[in-house]
Design goal:
Alpha-Beta Plaits, two-stranded antiparallel sheet, Arc Repressor Mutant, subunit A
């Protein structure tokens, strides 16, 4: 099915609703209705319809690991001799590991990316070795990186519009004093952030007023960065691509210009700064291969003198997206 045929399964109002849910997935029906100029009832109906179609796959709180005393370690992998059966066992193994919070299956030069949240390098090594002991014989190559900053953008690609609205995770490490109820709340919100205050209160055996107070505290402390909607972009004809850049110049001024350029581009959904194999990574949504080449051409026109080389992969699936299991 061609891109425009897939996009026809939702109309402009649906796309507007999805756009306003991005980075604000706890927005009330009233708030979304005001922004999209339809009634609350229409918004409710359309959201339920998008969920039923599988276009909305879920809602989750974006947690800033650094505000919880954890570092964001990433492992990129190329595998070999991994059958489909073993691949599924590997994915399930990663999903079941409470220290692994993100799992991505990719097409291209790499096959997998998984993220480990750990308090220090020793804790990361322990988790990595558990995975390596079980599946290391299928590993052809790997590299590690430590995330320092991630920029989350609204789903601009749905409306093909420029927007500089973003949320940022990373930064200085803090060690907050979180009690059992805070951890329960964060775990729950990382799985479904659109639950009502009453539903959350029932699940963690608290009151709606207490839940609201704790959420505001976690938001104020920037432990909760934002609330995101998980969109099945493939049903809409989009492909998620990651581009990883090596640069000749990584000065603060140059990086700022490059980040600003990507921030305003309507197809950019993430920018990642990390210590590791690449100097800057970003992700985009493309409706065709031409979208990628147009963006790359624009990048080379503006920054051709500083881009040393690049690598790119396609995100095929994300079996796990930031779900916590805090004790």
């Amino acid at each position: 099915m061609a891109f425009y045929e897939k996009m026809s399964i939702i109309d402009k109002k649906d796309r507007e609703i999805l756009f306003h849910l991005s980075l604000h997935a706890r927005a009330s029906l009233k708030e979304i209705a005001k922004k999209t100029r339809v009634s609350k009832e229409v918004v409710h109906y359309r959201i339920k319809n998008l969920e039923a179609k599988g276009i909305i796959e879920g809602y989750y709180a974006v947690i800033n690991t650094y505000r919880m005393g954890w570092t964001f370690y990433r492992v990129y992998m190329k595998t070999f001799n991994m059958t489909a059966d073993i691949e599924q066992k590997f994915i399930q193994f990663l999903k079941n590991n409470k220290n692994v919070t993100w799992v991505v299956q990719m097409d291209g030069d790499l096959d997998f990316l998984y993220v480990v949240w750990a308090k220090d390098i020793s804790e990361f090594q322990k988790t990595y070795m558990e995975i390596n002991d079980a599946f290391g014989k299928y590993l052809e190559q790997k590299f590690f990186s430590v995330m320092t900053d991630v920029y989350y953008f609204k789903s601009k690609y749905l409306l093909t519009k420029e927007s500089d609205s973003f949320q940022l995770t990373g930064g200085k490490i803090y060690y907050p004093d979180l009690d059992a109820e805070d951890k329960q709340l964060l775990t729950l919100l990382s799985h479904d952030c659109r639950l009502s205050l009453m539903d959350i209160a029932k699940k963690i055996k608290s009151t709606a007023k207490t839940v609201q107070r704790r959420m505001k505290k976690l938001e104020h402390a920037k432990i909760i960065t934002c609330y995101q909607v998980k969109i099945n972009h493939k049903l809409l004809g989009y492909t998620q691509r990651k581009i990883m850049l090596n640069l000749n110049d990584t000065s603060t001024q140059t990086m700022k210009k490059l980040i600003t350029f990507l921030t305003y581009h309507p197809l950019t959904i993430y920018i990642t700064i990390a210590i590791g194999q690449y100097d800057l990574e970003f992700e985009m949504m493309e409706s065709s291969h031409e979208d990628f080449h147009k963006l790359l051409k624009a990048l080379k026109k503006e920054f051709g003198n500083i881009i040393k080389n690049y690598s790119t992969v396609i995100f095929y699936d994300e079996p796990k997206v930031g779900q916590l299991a805090l004790e």
